[in-house]
Amino acid sequence: MDSFEFNKIAGAVLGTLLFAMGIGIVADMIYKPKGPVVAGYELPSAEAAPVKTAAAAPAAAAAPIAERLASADAKRGEAGARACASCHAFEKGGANKIGPALHGVADRVKGAVAGFGYSAALKARAAQGEKWDAAALDGFINNPKAYLPGTSMGYSGLADPARRADMVAYLLSLK
Predict the structure, then answer these.
(1) Of 59, 106, 159, 175, which residue is the least packed, with the fewest Cβ within 10 Å?
(2) Nearest residue to 160 via CA among 103, 76, 88, 90
(3) 144 with 157: CB under 8 angstroms?
(4) Are residues 75 and 26 in the same domain?
(5) Could you give the C-alpha distances from 49 to 46, 155, 167, in angstroms and in order?
(6) What domain range is 19 assigned to?
(7) In the chain, alpha helices (H)
(8) Single pTM value for the model
(9) For 1-40, how does the pLDDT look when each residue is reduced to its tens digit (9 = 90+)?
(10) pLDDT tens digits for 47-102?
């Protein structure tokens, strides 16, 4: 094959590629796809209202913690607290983990566990001398970010008032 034959073949291949590219450019000019107004997907915000179901009553309609504690079971609360054990120690003298040790948390000043790095929001409450009573524990377990804006706790909360009462009863029993 001489060089003239090779040039014809190379020219045909390059011409075909140029023609295909030109068709793509013309098609993009004719059929312009409409992109989204905002890139990405809309995610639900943290401000969204919780879904109301028959199983989970809204927190506003929950009975006061003192009434719920009358029928609460600390053993059920202990079973529910197993999920918290990855971040908190519940035994006496337990070491701080990701979160502070919770033995004796009832009636303790907020942010008072020595050697734990609390968020600025909790340090401010500690400076005011606030203590962890049943109502404070219930509010914090319900929704930590709403109860204490600026907290570094990553837990989203426990919506069921009966389960929260069980958990508070368990925490009150740790003395």
Answers:
(1) 175
(2) 76
(3) yes
(4) no
(5) 8, 17, 24
(6) 1-32
(7) 3-30, 65-70, 74-80, 120-127, 134-142, 144-147, 161-173
(8) 0.63
(9) 788 899 999 999 999 999 999 999 999 889 877 777 777 7
(10) 655 555 444 444 456 789 889 999 999 999 999 888 888 899 999 888 889 989 99
The sign one gets for the Cα dihedral 138, 139, 143, 149 is: negative
**DSSP H helical segments within 111-154, as ranges?**
120-127, 134-142, 144-147
Domain count, the chain: 2
Alpha-carbon span 175 to 173, nearest angstrom:
6
In the block, tokens 């927190």 appear at: 59
Give the Å distances, CA to CA, from 167 to 4, 29, 54, 163, 170.
Answer: 88, 64, 21, 6, 5
15 and 93, same domain (yes or no): no
